[in-house]
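Minutes, project check-in
Item: structure for the 78-residue chain
Input as provided by the requester:
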Amino acid sequence: MIGPYEVTDPRTLVCQFCDQRAAGRVKVELYGGALMVCMQCYYKLQAKREHPYSSVMDKFCLRACRYQANRKMARLRR
């Protein structure tokens, strides 16, 4: 365990959010989709979790769900 999260993939692989090589990735699940992301992206996604209209969440939804999330429904679920 490193910090507040558990590294679920300790190999050096590419982050699915920022496309940079990372030593260890974490699975992040939001809006019905999931990505394996690096530590920096994990913190960025956690900070923007409450902001469904942000460009960060838009990028996450496109990469994880392969479509733009219904932002109105995302706000109602919070």
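Outcome recorded: The chain has one domain: 9-77.
No further action items on this chain.
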